[in-house]
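From the pipeline queue, job 12 of 40. The input is one protein chain; the requested action is below.

Action: predict structure.
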Amino acid sequence: LEDSIADLDEQVSRGEIKQACSSLAETGHSAVVFLRHLSPQKNVLDTLIGSGIHFLSARDVERLMESRDQLTRLLESLHEVRDRGAIINEQIIRIQDIELNRAVYK
């Protein structure tokens, strides 16, 4: 998704608005779906880590903490993709407004 959003940014800077619009919707939807499904998993890991369940060894808790940290980084990346998508969308809207103004006031 990070590569897709970088490609979209390049497309917009080259003026390829139509191609960028359809890809932007797809990429944004994917990021939201991943966030919706992965965010609750972090809470589960936090609960397991803090639960003090006796059958979890210290090594198990370490692994859970590593998994939580990886998930946290992934969630941050997904939030960044979503935010960059919003910025690209704003750029597209500005470009379309400029083109509309040119067409109307010629």
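Job complete. The chain has three helices and no strands.
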